[in-house]
UniProtKB/TrEMBL annotation:
Annotated family: Belongs to the FAD-binding monooxygenase family.
Residues of the full protein shown: 123 to 636 of 636
Annotated source species: Streptomyces albidocamelliae
Protein name according to UniProt: NAD(P)/FAD-dependent oxidoreductase
Superkingdom of this protein's organism: Bacteria
UniProt keyword annotations, A-Z: FAD, Flavoprotein, Oxidoreductase
Length: 514
């Protein structure tokens, strides 16, 4: 998606329009940049002291993307010389810092400022924001608000008894305690998701013992170059051969454009049992199983523990270059296949057994389905957004909720891309383009407030829910952040291309402009 192609001055000179963006991660920086290009006054409120969002906060050892480097940047600000096939955390953060500085967006960010509350004022047709930042709490008003707070930002500690009773260091993976020296220590890592599978191999060998607590093992997808540097020739070609970088990006992205979702879909018409997966899903399972088994011929006991018993795609599939299973085979790594039940002063209890350790790392994920929490958001007629959602967040295109005018979400409900080429950066670009187009309509129609029509929102969500019901992550019994109860409010159940098409233009027929 390209720059807006219009300016505030060109459409409605002197219009009383200003926008607050919440969060200075990938989505927030992008929105602020696009608004700046359109000449719309914008302020970004960021709770941290730096840009980067999740890439600022996650500092755990081994942190890197699982999306190819060349896709993990803005399409209009590509970088040719990525050092790795899959960028490390510091590289991503450096990219975002450079972008914020070079685009001038950094000057628009109020750091160390958290938005606590949003309240719509119907008389003024403006949002009142309660901020907590330097100098204490204060209230400001803005015509519009764009929430760019991410889906995977607020850490989730497990609901176990005795939490906080451990006498040693215990912390969440996204709030790594760098004062804790893990060398030679017995370390517990709870979880086997995308965070844990990067952390555990880094700790193994340095710690005297790593005890890994697994509830549901992940499916692994062969990616031999996962930890390898990007070859010099690829970088050179991207930098010097005209259009090569675009072709390279397209090639990485091609699965997303083709919409290869079928492998994750459960056959329509089959009774929903764990066996009724589609033929493609079964093929995929067989190939991933084969790749895992090839690594486990010398460890039959481990095989029983690590081969998932749920359909591929029901949980996030992790990249595999052999590191994870090789780590689990080590003598100084112990895999416990029972949920943690309790924290004690000495360690953790699982399946009735107490495991004594010196340090606990909770790699237990994020409050993904609780969009916009812990902010309190009050829309038209005093309606509270979270009460309105009733635990099932929905938005039109993940962006707009009826009853909440001039409020837009980026990486909102049902916009997480699963198992295709592409990345959330691409989704944010599409959603931002849509938001800018809705603002254009507001300006050209001399309106002050815009929101999606309720019937359009409801029809859209019925379409999303119907498709989601056929996806492995909703249909399977396995739990995880892809699902919340019986539905998914996180994942996009269609192709990446479908989202591009739907967000290309804001349809005036879909909106209430007044
Ligand atoms: O969190 P998760 P994450 N006892 O929710 C387990 C992105 N990301 O931080 O599977 C024992 O996936 C829980 O078990 P179960 C990426 O989108 C990307 O790892 O629910 N275990 C699970 O194993 C990713 O998907 C990258 O049964 C307990 C784990 O904790 C998302 O962030 C890197 C438990 C939580 O896994 C989240 O990943 C990092 C208990 N009582 C993150 N309670 C890359 O790009 C929970 N668990 C590589």
């Amino acid at each position: 998606p390209k720059a807006p192609g219009w300016t505030l001055e060109g459409l409605r000179p002197g219009a009383d329009l200003d926008v607050a963006v919440i969060g200075a991660g990938f989505s927030g920086l992008l929105a602020a940049h696009r608004l700046g290009q359109a000449g719309v006054p914008v302020v970004v409120y960021e709770k941290n002291e730096d840009v980067g969002g999740t890439w600022f906060e996650n500092t755990y050892p081994g942190c890197r993307t699982d999306v190819a480097s060349h896709l993990y940047n803005y399409s209009f600000a590509p970088r040719a010389d990525w050092p790795d096939h899959f960028c490390r955390r510091d590289t991503v953060l450096e990219y975002l810092r450079d972008f914020a500085k070079e685009s001038g967006v950094a000057d628009r960010v109020r750091f160390g400022t958290e938005v606590r509350e949003l309240r719509w004022d119907e008389r003024e047709r403006r949002w009142h924001l309660t901020l907590d930042g330097p100098g204490g709490p204060r209230t400001v008003t803005h015509r519009m608000v764009i929430s760019a707070v991410g889906q995977l930002n607020r850490p989730q500690l497990p609901a176990v008894d005795g939490l906080g009773s451990f006498t040693g260091p215990a912390f969440h993976s996204a709030a790594w305690d760098h004062t804790a020296d893990l060398t030679g220590k017995r370390v517990a890592v709870v979880g086997t998701g995308a965070s844990a599978y990067q952390i555990v191999p880094e700790l193994a060998g340095a710690a005297s013992e790593v005890v890994v607590f697994q509830r549901n093992p992940p499916w692994l997808r062969p990616t031999p170059h996962y930890h390898q540097p990007l070859s010099g020739s690829t970088s050179w070609l991207c930098e010097h051969l005209p259009y090569y970088a675009q072709w390279y990006r397209f090639w990485l992205f091609a699965p997303g454009l083709r919409g290869i979702l079928d492998g994750w879909i459960v056959d329509r018409g089959h009774p929903p049992t764990e066996r009724a997966v589609s033929a493609l899903n079964e093929q995929l399972r067989a190939s991933l199983l084969q790749a895992m088994e090839a690594q486990l011929t010398d460890a039959p006991e481990l095989r029983e523990k690590v081969v998932p018993r749920y359909p591929v795609g029901a949980k996030r599939v992790l990249r595999d270059d052999g590191t994870w299973l090789a780590t689990l085979k080590r003598d100084d790594v112990r895999l416990v296949t029972a949920p943690v039940e309790r924290e004690t002063p000495r360690g953790l209890v699982a399946d009735g057994e107490e495991f004594e350790v010196d340090v606990i790392v909770y790699a237990t994920g994020f409050q993904a389905s609780r969009f916009l929490t812990p902010m309190k958001v009050t829309g038209e007629r005093g309606v509270d957004l979270h009460t309105h959602w009733g635990g099932a967040p929905r938005a039109h295109l993940g962006i707009s909720v009826p009853g909440f005018p001039n409020l837009f979400c980026l990486y909102g409900p049902n916009t997480n891309l699963v198992g295709q080429g592409g990345s959330i950066v691409y989704f944010s670009e599409c959603a931002t383009r849509y938001v800018l187009d809705a603002i254009r309509l507001l300006l050209t129609r001399d309106a002050e407030a815009v929101q999606v029509r309720e019937d359009v929102h409801d029809d859209y969500n019925a379409w999303v829910d119907a498709a989601s019901a056929d996806r492995a992550w909703v249909w399977s019994k396995v739990s995880g952040w892809y699902k919340d109860g019986s539905r998914s409010s996180t994942n996009w159940p269609f192709s990446a291309a479908e989202y591009w098409t739907r967000t290309r233009r804001a349809d005036p027929e879909h909106l209430r402009l007044r």
